[in-house]
Request: fold
Amino acid sequence: MSGPGAHRDVVVTGLGVVSALGSGVDANWRRLLAGQTGLGPIEGFDVAGNTVTQGGGVDMSPLDAHQKGKLRRADRTVRLAVEASRQALIDAGWMSEDSGGDDALVGRDVANLWGCGCGPCGTLYQSNVRFAAKGAKGMRPSTVPSCMANSISAGVSIQFGLRGTNQVIVSACTSSTNAIGQGFRWIRHGYADAVLCGGVEAFFDPFYYGVWNNLGVLSTLPDAESALRPFDRDRAGTLLGEGAGALLLESAEHAAQRGAALRGTLLGYGETSDGTHLTAPSVDGQAEAIRRALSDAGAAAEDLVYINAHGTATAANDTTECRSIAEALGDAGAKIPVGASKSYFGHTLGASGALESIVTLLALEHRTAPANLNLDHADPDCTATFVGHEPQPLAHGLAMKNSFGFGGGNGVLIFGPGRAP
Reply:
């Protein structure tokens, strides 16, 4: 470790994904290229009484092969985060597929930084149900640690014996983009050699899903496969999804010393706050975050070959984001293909930045952008060059990932393709 004040290159050496499309990077990428959505009827709890009953649920059965004992009983967010982490650590060559994982990395000085907007919702809901039924005397002592937001990062740290700091960042839909950005800064400036960054969300319970249903931003279109339509003229709102994405970041020097293969490079990060409204997005705030990310990367708009948009399929967000891109990137921005991933996964809130960053890295790696599902007629107020109904070849270059959230938080990452260490 070089120590504070260093300015080091940051690379991505491992990726892990659990989403409505399935478990594993390769499985997700195949379905992305095939244009297959993971959205469908919500299962796992009674959705009666909700106007919208569709979303992106995760099949947890593949996790059972790797998760035993107490982990099986942990909150869904912890289980998803642990599985995405396991995949990323294997991908990075830090553990093998058959090593189990309980003590595979004991003693490693690896930081562990996660983004989550909602926390361990399932455990919180069940605890409130128990309190309503039995009162204070009926509450289990384990409720406190189980309901902490940082039970997610702590669970990952304990599972894999990671001895670096563990933290959870909570900033709504920008949470995991902020987590990746902070991990990037820790490595760049010498505070860590490796950071396991990620995002996770699991909120399909009667309370939390119910309040989102009543917010009025979910799509009421009846067909789940076509209900989520980012940037389309006929969009009607978003749909929620659960899942987790993990990225192992390392300094280029650290990765080279162990001969690691690179999944990509992370070059810049920009963040701002609108300072105007709790839920209404701001062109000024978003555009400034884009400019700061490019400046941090030492890059120009002309270097970008792909933009993975926040793209929630809500009227205010989509039009604001397109205006922000135009404001920040000028004429060059109008030529860059823009893709939106939420029609595949659903809007995974705090996890969206991590999941969509992985899509962005895979697009650079394969020089191919997945199609935009359900973008049949672009909204005339959304002036941009969008990826069409088929995957689009990409030139060699950089990519930008946007995340914008409630609370006015804006986070933007600039990625590059992998290079030999």
